[in-house]
Amino acid sequence: VEAQETIRQVMRGRRGLRASQPDNFSLETSESALKFWNDIKGKLVIAGIILPAIGLIVGAIVIMNIMLVAVAERTREIGIRKALGARRWDIMSQFLVEAATLTLTGGLIGVGVGLLFGALVKRVFGFDSSVPVWSAVVATAASIAIGLVFGLLPANRAARMDPVEALRHE
Question: Cβ(128)–Cβ(122) under 8 Å?
């Protein structure tokens, strides 16, 4: 602190500052640099949580809409299956498997693109990058879970259809 004040006085003298004038320079210490880095790191962590969460929400809404359209387009098929003896669970599981398959495919494509991007960064910039296997597994499992959760509403809607009304649908 004493050395810092001595440096501050020398800098004020070299810049011709009077006692009433504020400093027109700043002194950086390792503590201030560390504090600055921790502030940036905290903001990056928050951004690293919020941005993927937005992506998951948008993806979930897209999956639900795709599945709702699939149910609407296949109303007649659902009616035929129910008329032939398919139970509610049979219809529900059909659409849940479809939603899980869609999201599994999307998750695998996302992991693949991420691995390719990591290899590109490693090659172009020389950064040592690697992706832990557990993170790829968690990402894929999360995408399947999103598909199952947001596929429940369309699957339930399909399973609750009245077979007579479904068969009348054009």
Answer: yes
Tell me the H-state helices in the chain.
Answer: 2-14, 30-73, 75-83, 88-125, 133-159, 163-168
Give the CA dihedral 154, 155, 160, 161, nearest 10 degrees.
70
HSE toward the beta carbon, residue 47, CA cutoff 13 A: 6
Q: Is 103 helix (H, G, I), strand (E, B) or coil?
A: helix
pLDDT digits 0-9 by tens, 85-97? 999 999 999 999 9
pTM for this model (two decimals): 0.73
Provide the token pair at 68. 């709702």
CB-based contacts of 142: which residues, under 8 Å, 6+ apart? 56, 107
